[in-house]
């Protein structure tokens, strides 16, 4: 038997590495197991988010957005740039450098905080033992007082479009294109599909997004989703809803996709096809039969409100458990669990977890939306404010979108904040903080916001909840 630890974390993604570092900071002897290997064959930390998810996709989104701005918007600002082009290979190199800096930074943080990095594939055995199989096939078994499972998730594959990593790729493969495909198909109009479709559309691809559901972004507030679809369609994304893919054929360097919609059987030919229809919890070879961990009918590890599994001393966090598959949700669960293991009282407010779609404009929300309030029978009052009436948005040449605040009709407590607009992913933090502190719409309305800022739209939306927005014509007289 190898060393015994106070805590062993399986997985070094945003949930796992944060849990490991925080546990070590609290004085616990901590190890973290990671099997991710980069192109050079080196074990790297950061999981999907840093290696093939959040970070690399944002690097490409930022570059492609700046390219479009230079092409179409600079002239209106009085900046003349002439003909410009994008060097995709250089863009990809910058993306790789960003990833390398961040994954290397986690390894440095492990060393600085005394976290033992175990390289290989972790498997939970009975008695809170963890078996680690290295790249060479050699195994070692470690014992812990507490185990935190943070194994993450993987893309869902669909039989009609099997991944070949050449013409048909998943979300990771879509980050590796060395040139913009002329015709690009995207199966799935969720967050990942819209972001990746936006990147390559900006760089010159004719993008068609095929979505089986008839509703666009059903988890997003209806008004925000409607505006999002309108703006993305205006940008060139051909979004087909109610279109179920039935098959695909690779032929002569092309992909022919078959799907059914309201008009019957359809086919469309692409140079590349991205499959991003969702993700599923990763538990393959993770749990020994005798480990005693219970899974639900969708393959998620069953946990309670503080991420405890069915086995005492074994916790699970992040994408492998219930709740939204978001890096920041996983990180906060990691902090909570580390605190609990160290003997502190800790909890997490699952009602105040923000979500962001990093298109342009960005879409962000926290809390419930109007349709959810209706389904739950909650009486609400709503305030909205368009960025078209924002002085800073006008100065930024970014007047698309709006901010929306939903409050309880009787208590005035903020139940949700929804934003589509420039930097919505940053602005939503105001809504998260307000909800975390149980604020009312009046609390936000009475807060002094800096001028001129985009955040004033959130202020005005809060004022509008009771009809008191200053910079809109439909004001009510204050009683």
TrEMBL record:
Gene Ontology annotations of biological process type: 2-oxoglutarate metabolic process
Membrane-crossing segments per the record: none
Database matches in SUPFAM superfamilies: FAD/NAD(P)-binding domain, FAD/NAD-linked reductases, dimerisation (C-terminal) domain
Catalytic residues identified in the record: 451 (proton acceptor)
Residues covered by the FAD/NAD(P)-binding domain: 5-334
EC number assigned by the record: 1.8.1.4
Boundaries of every Pyridine nucleotide-disulphide oxidoreductase dimerisation domain copy: 353-462
Disulfide bonds: 49-54
Gene3D superfamilies attached to this UniProt entry: 3.30.390.30, FAD/NAD(P)-binding domain
GO CC terms in record: cytoplasm
Highest taxon above the source species: Bacteria
MF-aspect GO terms: dihydrolipoyl dehydrogenase (NADH) activity; flavin adenine dinucleotide binding
InterPro entries tied to this protein: Class-I_Pyr_Nuc-Dis_Oxidored, FAD/NAD-bd_sf, FAD/NAD-binding_dom, FAD/NAD-linked_Rdtase_dimer_sf, Lipoamide_DH, Pyr_nuc-diS_OxRdtase, Pyr_nucl-diS_OxRdtase_dimer, Pyr_OxRdtase_I_AS
Catalytic activity field: N(6)-[(R)-dihydrolipoyl]-L-lysyl-[protein] + NAD(+) = N(6)-[(R)-lipoyl]-L-lysyl-[protein] + NADH + H(+)
Cofactor(s), by name: FAD
Keywords assigned: Cytoplasm, Disulfide bond, FAD, Flavoprotein, NAD, Nucleotide-binding, Oxidoreductase, Redox-active center
Localization: Cytoplasm
Binding site for NAD(+): 188-195, 211, 278
Other comment: The active site is a redox-active disulfide bond.
NCBIfam families in the record: lipoamide_DH (TIGR01350)
Family: Belongs to the class-I pyridine nucleotide-disulfide oxidoreductase family.
Name the UniProt record assigns to this protein: Dihydrolipoyl dehydrogenase
Organism: Larsenimonas rhizosphaerae
This protein's encoding gene: lpdA
